[in-house]
Design a protein that fits this description.
about 20% strand, Uridine Diphospho-n-acetylenolpyruvylglucosamine Reductase, domain 3, 5-stranded antiparallel sheet, binds flavin-adenine dinucleotide, 14 helices, alpha+beta, about 35% helix, single chain
């Protein structure tokens, strides 16, 4: 069904929300998910809008990735978000994929994102109702990777998200939403959180704050990230560095952030980033690369620091 107001969605919370459908529809087609009661959000005005108000930049969950990537306010006040949205997937997908759908996208794995016929040859994994992770057979949980590019950028800004859950509307850190989403999304019986994402808010940058996003993929368009990074430094908050596509949720690089605040040189910061990722990332086999190759990409954080140097970040 199509809903137009939040009140209407409250009556159908048992359903599955559809933003642009670019993530959900292929999963339904492959019977990787079997959601029955689809609730289309594309007519809901309350999920639209990009506005600057008092202390925050507000981003509607129904805004498309394309609109985010080209909007002057996003480019000026939260450039890492505009860059992440603009580097996601392909132009066709960015034209219909929504911000809410990007954050709530399913985690992916080469054993899960397959046709039903292909999967039949294997025992069911955690994500398809079984008790095993084919990637890491002794893992007690699903190890599929969360690939959202925009989530990495939102986390660098310590953004918050407004959700409606159990008929209650509240603001929570995006990091908390992504953590909960990631945990539930590894279980076939309950693969999505029963909540509506309404909008996001990003604190306005203080004087001197700079931020940047970058990603590495097999091709410059359409491919999911092999790794992505977002960095925010300067202004009146401690620096924040985040890496994505390396685990079931983005990884906060706390030591790296502290070294950035201390003004450490590029080699020291890059080494710290690599050490933190070796400790915290959980790489798995992907379509084109083994975990060992992904680990070689941890050093790419250096390129963000080069951008920082160039822009005097
Ligand atoms: C070929 C290809 C390449 C891709 N490459 C990348 C990439 O490089 N980087 C990247 O980050 N992503 C990539 N993606 C994923 C893509 O970004 C997502 O498909 C897209 O952002 C999902 O947005 P959507 O609005 O279409 O979500 P939908 O498919 O509509 O929904 C996705 C999930 O979010 C839930 N949902 C949607 N809106 C809401 C809401 N408002 N509240 C609560 N739940 C909601 C749905 O129920 C569903 O579970 C790629 C996808 C494809 C097909």
């Amino acid at each position: 069904m199509v809903v137009r107001t939040i009140e209407e969605t409250l009556k159908v919370q048992a359903g599955t929300f559809v933003g642009g459908g670019t993530d959900l529809m292929p999963l339904l087609k492959n019977h990787a998910r079997n959601d029955k009661n689809l609730v289309f959000l594309n007519r809901m005005e309350e999920l639209k809008g990009i506005r600057k108000e008092t202390d925050y930049l507000y981003l509607g969950a129904g805004e498309t990735l394309y609109d985010l990537s080209v909007h002057p306010l996003v480019q000026k006040l939260a450039p890492a978000i505009a860059q992440a949205a603009g580097m996601t997937a392909s132009p066709q997908i960015r034209n219909i994929a929504t911000l809410g759908g990007n954050i709530m996208q399913d985690r992916r794995c080469i054993y899960f994102n397959q046709s039903q016929f292909w999967r039949k040859g294997l025992e069911r994994c955690f994500k398809t109702g079984g008790n095993i992770c084919h990637q890491i057979p002794n893992s007690p949980v699903c190890r599929a990777i969360y690939y959202s590019d925009v989530a990495t950028a939102l986390l660098a800004y310590e953004a918050e998200v407004e959700c409606v859950e159990n008929k209650i509307r509240s603001w929570i850190p995006v990091q908390k939403l992504v953590h909960r989403h990631s945990q539930v999304n590894g279980l076939a019986c309950d693969c999505h959180l029963p909540l509506l994402v309404v909008r996001f808010r990003v604190p306005l940058p203080a004087e001197g704050e700079q931020s940047v996003f970058n990603k590495y993929a097999m091709r410059s368009t359409i491919d999911f990230p092999l790794i992505n990074f977002a960095l925010r430094v300067g202004g009146d908050r401690p620096a924040r560095a985040v890496a994505g596509a390396v685990a079931p949720e983005p990884v906060l690089l706390e030591e790296t952030g502290k070294l950035l605040d201390a003004g450490s040189d590029t080699n020291t910061v890059t080494a710290a980033c690599e050490e933190e990722l070796n400790r915290l990332a959980l790489p798995i086999r992907e379509a084109c690369i083994p975990p060992a190759m992904k680990r070689m990409l941890y050093q790419q954080f250096r390129e963000l620091l080069d951008v920082r140097a160039k822009n005097r970040m």
